[in-house]
Amino acid sequence: MLIGLIPKGNLIAISLMTLFCALRINLAAGTASIALFAWAGLFLDPISHRVGHYLLTRQALEPYWTSLSTIKFMPWTAYNNTVVLGSTVIGLALLVPVYAVSRPVFARFAPRLAEFVRKYHVAQVLHGGELTGKTRVKGMSNVACQQNVPVD
Predict the structure, then answer these.
(1) Which of 39, 73, 87, 140 sits 20 to 30 Å CA-CA off 45?
(2) Helix-strand-coil split of the chain, %, nearest 5
(3) Averaged confidence pLDDT in the chain
(4) What's the predicted TM-score (pTM) here?
(5) What is the greatest pairwise CA distance in the chain?
């Protein structure tokens, strides 16, 4: 969710994508959620801008932003962009509630969805490689096909 909400092309998004690829998670579900939340992020941009603008213009936070600007890699994070900062804050604030809501939903619907997808040949091929045992090459018998030996 967080990757989808944050505008791309900054160190925050790149770091999160690296973490996404490094962790053992379902890449299909993760990619689908990134796409879904990137689409939702387009509609949240005005709210993200307001949140980021609010945080960047507070006098109490000015020393914090100044100290961050002295760190060499911080300009690459684009934290001074109102939409990037607002999206990051909104994403971090929604992280626990979205997890709490999505966990029981996936627990309930994942078995049904998996059973539905297993019906299709493409899913069977991608899951277990059943394609190799069922193909026939012209001029080869079943046994020869499995051993790659031509039939006389």
Answers:
(1) 73
(2) 75, 0, 25
(3) 82
(4) 0.70
(5) 86
